[in-house]
Amino acid sequence: MKAIIIDDNEIALLATQQCVLKAEQITLVKTFNNALQALSYIASNPIDLIFLDIEMPELNGIEFIKAMKHPHPLIVLTTSHPEFALEAYEHNVLDYLVKPVALPRFLNAVAKAQAMFEKHNIDKIENDIIFIKKGNIIVKVNKSDVLWIEGLGDYVTLNTEKEKFIVHSTMHSIEQKFASNEFMRVHRSFIIRIDRINNIEDNCISYYDKFIPIGKTYRESVYKRLNLL
User: What DSSP line would sit under 156-212, residue for residue?
Assistant: First the structure.
């Protein structure tokens, strides 16, 4: 796990750093004594775990959590005041460590983080794969390979660059399986990948060598998803 430490107290930061260096599951990427700088850093750098002090100037730990985009890294809060624990857990933090932090207690928090990290990765793998029956065999298909989905009566076609798969299903059912930031339903008969859109003109999407209409009932949600300026 890639981790950072945020603490405005230099002595406390060094103490947490020493604990991190003894945990084999963690790679310490960076330390911060300024929460605003840390917030800017995680916006463009992948981080799995944050050890976060609660009492800091400008932006305290709770405010820092509220300011992060979701989904955010796992959070382990550190503080000298245990009375903050109840409020901390209301923000779905993984654990809460009271300073000075004992190494066994720290390693216990790391073990929790590792278990949560591994579960998230397994869930992601499972969610990125579907299995389709094709004749007498079952084929594994990565969702990322699907370019667009088209409804044809009681069937839908899943189109990849190499192959087209025909599945007996409703568009509603398929839409649930492909509910993510990558895919978007634009018409009662079409679900497409957002990153493959070329341009849009007269409520019609230029998509590869196809022109896909945006259905009237989907226009508002489509343009909202596209962050239209």
Answer: EEEE-SS-EEEEE--HHHHHHHT-SSSEEEEETTEEEEGGG--EEETTEEEETTEEE
Q: Which domains, from first to last, does the chain contain?
A: 2-126 (3.40.50.2300), 130-225 (2.40.50.1020)
| N- to C-terminal Cα separation, the chain | 37
Rounded (10°) CA dihedral 18, 65, 75, 11: 10
Cα 192 from chain centroid (whole Å): 20
Helix 103-127 to helix 10-21 angle (10° resolution) is: 70
User: What is the tens place of the pLDDT at every residue in 158-174?
Assistant: 999 888 999 888 898 88
pTM confidence score: 0.55
The string of pLDDT tens digits covering residues 211-222 is 899 999 998 888
The sign one gets for the Cα dihedral 107, 111, 116, 118 is positive
- Residue 131, H or E segment: strand 129-134
Sequence-distant (6+) residues with CB within 8 A of 153 are none
